[in-house]
Amino acid sequence: MSRRRQNDDEDETQTKRRRGAPLISDVEKKLQEVIGKVGEKSTGSSITMNLEKLTEFLTDDLDKYRTSIIDIVAGCAIYLPNRVTVYTTLVGLLNAKNFNFGGEVVEKLIAEQQDLLTKQKYQEAQNVAIFLCDLGNSGVLTAQSIGEYLESFISAAFEENMPQVRNDYYIQTVLRCLPWIGKELTEKSPEQMENIVEAVGKYLELRNKNHVTLLQVWSSTDQEQEDYLESLSAQIEQLRALNWTENHIPRYYKDFEAILADALQHNLPSFASPDHSSDMIYPYPLVVFRLFQDSDCSSFSDKPLPGGHSIDRFLFEGEISWIIEKNQFNRKSCARELLAFAEENPSKDAYSGSQIFLREVIEKCRRLGSYEKIIAALPSDFVKIHPCSPDVRYLIDEEDTALVQRAETFTQMFQERQPAEAFLNELKSVDGSEELPYNINEFGLFVMVIDCSAVVAWLFDEKMWAEHNRQWLFEVLNQALEKLTRQINVVEKDIKELTERVENKETDDVKEEEMEADDEKNEKLKQDVDDLENHKEKLERMVTFQKGLFNDFLIAFVEEIKIAGANTSEMDGSGDTAGRQSPKFQWLKGRFCHVLLAHAETLLKHSSSIADEVFTEGADPSVTECFNQFQSLRF
């Protein structure tokens, strides 16, 4: 699971656009197009036939455009995990014709994997590992060297004094590779296969699982909520019992067995894990979220849903997750790919949600449409969960007709979406004789941005506790906290750029052929040094403020949960359930866990001070347990 922020990805993309993309030749564009489309089913011909044609096409230009072809294939291996076997078959066919090509592809992928791990792009690095292992099926790599490669991952997982999340990642990488290469290893290197399975089992026995309870979604239900490594290990065990027979991976290299069997094979180098440092952030552990059980789909589909311990379930769930993540900014493209992924049209059966779910959905619809139309469209049975009418509230003395009329004027202007200049003119048109409690022009209240600390303080004021059973409040809370985190990330990015400039003793805009006078360079360097110091001081203040903000609102949150646990009254006043079993307590505790997970990267940095200041002797034990489970995510 990648934890890189979406905002960071967008910023990086925009920066690259401003700098301009490097120019590539028309031939390279053609190569990208033909190689990128070889696995598409919409070309009108079979993928096997497309691979044959592409192999012939590339063989003719292999010597001339070798580097470009290798780079494109490596990119496909990293960023198109749904077509692994397409490109491993292509590499196998080209390796059969040119032995050196296969070796160079392997060297390129090994270098890319090391670079990806250094940059903490863990999902992409796993894609490379799967691709390398599948090259054993296409006749490029020997089974023994692949076994040694996987054993080196296991050795990295057993290194001493390392965070468990780091070790989990390496074990997960091994398990994810086995559906592709497990059968080949069992047949050609059975001893290595036994060693791998035994080592994985030993690791899982010794592993700390305190985080599982925190991450589980359901309570009081028989729905399976397994730890992700435990689930994947069980799926691999079942696959192994079935002699590695699965129904999801399209193995195109089987159509070329005669060609690939005669190809010379390479040895895959052992994996060398990057050195660990305290600032490295590894993927957090997960609990597998499955909304449907096997029996839920039997009534409307001829094809049964694979069981939770079936490797087919893991494979198609992983591909669906990849499609959604890849298209997270393009819903239309996401829907199109998901429909194409399904072999038949999805069922149109409707599933009803609970009252609280419907209420939240309707309230969100109210933000986007006419209140009257929404109420008219709802069934009469939904009257209990109708949202409140979004009437404008005038927080002024309604007996003062002048101010009421003025408020209505601004309301009309907002509805008409008039430009900012119109509002300024209206504000300046105030008669001098009219006395207002404040000078709106002087203070610029109409453009004031509320500080996130003020938002958090307002949300956790005791007067707002009655609203803490509504989802909107926690949406606002998370947005306010995320805003502060983004501001800190911007300052950290500026510090990194300034540090590089100071260390290199040059600015980004100076070209080597246009050297400036030494005094000008020294002046710019001095300015950069001053800016760097100012940014470091600013960052220190912001981090201190952030730490205090989290401490303050968590103290208030924990106190509210404590009171809810001691109170016998219900959120709706029914009083049917008491204390920690009440829906109010369970709701607040769940929201507390959600806040921890939503801001995990930030909170884990300050977890020691939070534990000392927030979770005192009077804190509710179940909430303290949640925080202890949360701390185990990093270690």
From TrEMBL:
Record-annotated MIF4G domain positions: 28-240
Protein's organism: Caenorhabditis remanei (Caenorhabditis vulgaris)
Compartment(s) where it occurs, according to its Swiss-Prot or TrEMBL record: Nucleus
Gene3D superfamilies: 1.25.40.180
Molecular functions per Gene Ontology: mRNA binding; RNA cap binding
GO annotation, biological process: 7-methylguanosine mRNA capping; mRNA export from nucleus; nuclear-transcribed mRNA catabolic process, nonsense-mediated decay; regulatory ncRNA-mediated gene silencing; RNA splicing
Keywords: mRNA capping, mRNA processing, mRNA splicing, Nucleus, RNA-mediated gene silencing
Higher taxonomy: Eukaryota, Metazoa, Ecdysozoa, Nematoda, Chromadorea
Primary subcellular site in the record, as a coarse category: nucleus
Biased segments, Acidic residues type: 509-520
Entry's family note: Belongs to the NCBP1 family.
Superkingdom of this protein's organism: Eukaryota
UniProt-recorded name of the protein: Nuclear cap-binding protein subunit 1
